[in-house]
Design a protein that fits this description.
The chain has about 260 residues and is mainly alpha-helical. The chain is built from eleven helices and no strands.
């Protein structure tokens, strides 16, 4: 029983270390994952912030959104790593070895978690230098970290699934653009009530809005309401569907 259990854990650990090593060698992606959110933070705070009325300091309003954007964009790069493995033939080599098949995808997701939690932490720390002043206590911070981790986990598995669907690295890289675009049609950067009437239902009923609203409530003490359970439901639903789809696509990708 112990050997049966340790085998997939050991394989997942090996694949995670492999993916992390590859990520640390790709300095361009690491820097973009950190620099891009910081650039957006500077742009929205110092360029657009004065023109956007939210009823509070805009830096406090926008930092939770930048955290979600950073986590989402970083998780989206997992598709590139998975597609690269699938197209370069290394997966076929793994399948000839005594390696648990799920360990390859699990390794990519674990590496994505480590990489993106790290880059998100850097963005949070730098936001204090820009004037971000959260009021959260220890429990609220733990809840916020848990929500961000769940969001990264869900999007990492979704990205891995899309990486199995795409045939080229260029196509996989477009996944990051989609994830980067979604927060703009939400309450991330402007209040929903300022949007055109036809766009407000779209912004209100997509996953980014309740996640951002919950994060704002946890960090700044604003009203959360039903956003928390809606955010968790979205993340869990994306996670469950993505894991199931990834398992199916992985089996179908096996060559006869």
């Amino acid at each position: 029983m112990s050997m049966t259990l340790n085998h997939p854990i050991r394989d997942a650990s090996v694949m995670s270390r492999r993916s992390i090593r590859h990520a640390t060698r790709n300095l361009d992606s690491l820097l973009i994952g950190i620099v891009l959110p910081i650039m957006l933070l500077v742009m929205f705070t110092y360029v657009f912030g004065g023109a956007i009325e939210t009823g509070e300091r805009y830096i406090d309003f926008v930092v939770p959104s930048i955290i979600v954007l950073c986590a989402g964009y970083g998780a989206g790069t997992t598709a590139v790593s998975v597609t690269q493995d699938m197209t370069e033939g290394i997966v076929d080599r793994f399948r000839t070895m005594q390696v648990v098949s799920s360990a390859v995808l699990t390794g990519h997701v674990a590496a994505s978690m480590a990489r993106n939690l790290g880059s998100t932490a850097v963005v949070v720390l730098l936001s204090f230098a820009f004037g971000f002043r959260p009021t959260a206590g220890p429990l609220a911070w733990l809840a916020a970290i848990g929500l961000v981790a769940l969001f990264i986990l869900a999007l990492s598995w979704l990205s891995a699934t899309l990486g199995l669907l795409t045939r080229t690295v260029d196509a996989a890289s477009s996944v990051g653009f989609f994830i980067l675009f979604l927060p703009y049609v939400s309450s991330a950067f402007v209040p929903i009530e300022t949007m055109p009437g036809w766009l407000q239902p779209v912004a209100a009923h997509q996953p980014i809005t309740p996640i951002v609203e919950t994060l704002r409530g946890l960090l700044l003490g604003t009203e959360i309401g039903s956003s928390a359970w809606v955010a968790v439901t979205w993340c869990v639903a994306i996670l469950v569907v993505s894991v199931a789809a990834a398992a199916l696509l992985w089996r179908r990708s096996r060559r006869p």
